[in-house]
Input
Amino acid sequence: MNYLVTGGSGFIGSHLVEHLLKNGHFVINIDNFDDFYDYKIKITNTLESVGISTEFDFVERERDLQKLIFKTSSRQYQLYYQDIRDLEGLQKIFQKHKIDLVIHLAALAGVRPSIERPLDYEEVNIRGTMHLWELAKKYEITKFLAASSSSVYGNNEKVPFSETDRVDEPISPYAATKKCTEIMGHVYHHLYGIDMIQLRFFTVYGPRQRPDLAIHKFTDSIVSGAAIPFYGDGTTARDYTYIDDIISGIQKSINYLEENSGIYEIINLGENQVVTLNEMVQTIEESLQLTAERNCLPMQPGDVLKTNADLTKARSMIGYQPDTKFQNGIKKFVEWFLKKGS
Output
């Protein structure tokens, strides 16, 4: 099969690309190497995902990315340095390749940055996604999988969070853009017959996690002896989902899309194991055998109090069965982090 993956050099995307390549598929990776964080991290992700040595002679951004494209191109993989806001550039890629299914992971991520840059988030997450649907319509691609987010639930009082819950009160621009693309996705399904699954990811972690996310940031700070930014009283809680379980859920969703037609579905992918901020820090401390210094700060605007995925639909519809306990997942992450830093 020929899969187009947007954001295939990011955290989740690079793991998915690696998985698809190992299973013998052709992968087209579209990534703009946004400066949200150091592009060199994404270069390393890309090299790891295609099974090439991560040793790379960095020079400067544009030349590095051209070298990367040349280095990784093969009969099984093609990387494009491309922004999804650029419709003309995207169209050239859709013209060149026969695409069986689009897996759309690219987005401007992060709740707090979205409050500072709401127009950028609208432009990338909504308009960029619509560009992909317009091209899917034009080139008669009828299978589409998209990444949504648990952020759409906001401060939902009903626990666990179910796909049938009302999610009309987002508390950040990021969450609002994800809710919007769920709605617009249904329009393209209804009008143009695009089979679609929108996956609501719940706080994904593991090797290659973005450095701005809590588990990575806290681990780095504890190892370096810096204080961790500790927001609130430690009782906020998240349904942390290990990367291997997310990739399993994506693959099962792909299988469901390929085996069925006339479908539009929203599915939670979580671990169904709620961990408080206090418990998360303690687990990292135990894995590192170090003690964190805490810089206690007030809760931040846009942060939700708790997330908890109801996995009933995921289990019954696609056979999703996450099996990585948080303590084991943190142990694997810490092992990767320490190896990466050595």
Residues 118-138 form the longest helix (21 residues).
